[in-house]
Amino acid sequence: ATLAHFFVASALSSALGISIFWCNLFGFLFAFSVSYFGHYHLSFRSDAPHAKALPKFALTALLGFLVNNAALLALVWSAGEERIGFIAIAMVFSAGTVFIVSKFWSFANTGAPKA
Question: Which of 100, 88, 96, 99 is CA-nearest to residue 3?
Fold first, then answer.
């Protein structure tokens, strides 16, 4: 999902030359479902009902995006210019946050692990 996010953001930046903040948003939106289903089925093998897991993950992903955007804003502010590589750096800050909150809250298993 992180690679999908960065790929979309980079492609939009290269093709359209729009602000990296817009590129970051569109990359996040594109990667959301990749992240949700990847975490649900692969990372955590959750058996939580989607009706419970999806809203929790949406909040978790939004928290991660806010952390990501705050880091991106700080990088742009300190450098005085926008650079697409800043999105990758900002992702380092948000990826850990999303993983930890997802593991212990969004996809917490309600029963035995899947085989």
Answer: 88
Amino acid at 86: F
- Which residues contact residue 68 at a Cβ distance below 8 angstroms, ignoring those fewer than 6 apart? 24, 28, 87, 90, 91, 93, 94
pLDDT band at 67 (very low <50, low <70, confident <90, very high): very high
Cβ contacts of 8 within 8 Å, gap of 6 or more? 23, 26, 27, 30, 31
* Beta-carbon-side half-sphere exposure of residue 31 (alpha carbons within 13 Å): 23
Q: The pTM is what?
A: 0.83
Listed in sequence order, the DSSP H helices in the chain are 2-16, 20-38, 50-79, 85-101
Q: Positive or negative, the Cα torsion across 43, 45, 48, 54?
A: positive
DSSP codes joined into one string, 31-47: HHHHHHHHIIIIIS---
